Amino acid sequence: MKVLVTGASGFIGSHLAERLAEEGYDTRVFIKREDIDKKERQDSIELINRLDMEKVYGDLLDINSLKNAVKGIDVIFHLAAIARPMAIPDEEYFKVNEQGTRNLLEACRNEKIKIIIIMSSISAVGPAKNDIPVNEKTECLPVDTYGWSKLAQEKAGEEYFKKYNMPVVFLRPPMVFGPRDFEM
């Protein structure tokens, strides 16, 4: 089984890529070329270079690089995103998180992908109301731009699921932290 991990130079992506490689999966990682030189990404880049995996460089906003990345892939873990806290204009969150996901899904349209697992965030839902735990049926009311961009990402995935029967699944983890995390 051939697996693609977008955002493999990030915190969660690097741990996932490491685990997939350790378990013997044929792993391809999609990395932004500029991440190679970022100081905070060096631990992840060095790890990726040590592991037996194929590297593809590109950008979520470059559909041709995405088409190259998804060729021959069975499973995609889409973790590339702008996460918080980032001191960037609000529209950048939507450009990368929503439009970047649309670009990835568009690149997948003519491929035989078995499943596309998209990492969203609990921020797409917003806080629980009246002490009632959130679930899939909870009304989404994000409290910040990041959350709204992740909700927009999910809506893009739902659109491709409904329109093209694309096998899309979303995960909404809460705050995660640990080794190689440079944001906490």
What quaternary form is this? single chain
Largest sheet: 6 strands, parallel
Q: What is the residue-averaged pLDDT?
A: 89
Cα shape: globular
The percent of residues in helical segments reads 25-40%
Structural class: alpha/beta
User: SSE string, helix = H, strand = E?
Assistant: EHEHEHEHEHE
Ends apart, CA distance between termini:
34 Å
Percentage of residues in strands: 15-25%
Q: Output the number of helix runs.
A: 5
| Rounded radius of gyration (Å) | 16 Å
Low-confidence stretches: none
What's the gist of this structure?
The protein is α/β, with parallel strands linked by helices. It has helices at 11-22, 42-50, 63-70, 90-108, 145-164, and strands at residues 2-6, 26-31, 54-57, 75-78, 115-119, 168-171. Strand 5 (115-119), helix 5 and strand 6 (168-171) form a beta-alpha-beta unit.
Describe this structure in words.
The protein has a six-stranded parallel beta sheet, with helices on both faces. The protein has five helices and six strands. 37% of the residues lie in helices and 15% in strands. Helix 1 packs parallel to helix 2. The longest helix is centred in the last third of the chain and has 20 residues. It is α/β, with parallel strands linked by helices. The model has no long low-confidence stretch (mean pLDDT 89).
